[in-house]
Amino acid sequence: MCESNVYLVEAGMEKLAAKEVASMTPKQNGYVFVDIYGNRYEFDNVEIAYIDFIGHRVVLKKRG
After folding, report:
1. Is the pLDDT score of 1 beyond 80?
2. Is pTM beyond 0.90 here?
3. Nearest-angstrom CA–CA distance, 59 and 8
């Protein structure tokens, strides 16, 4: 399986925000993630800090 976990940087620390994400779609000012169970996670006013393909991690940070 190639799912990833999504983390949001808060107060300088990466906090788990979504597990076993299978898809990511950009939207105005953010992203929508869908996990393998069909649950949707929407994040507004964020940008990608980095993606670790080997570690299966997507790390988001607040814009500005």
Report:
1. no
2. yes
3. 6
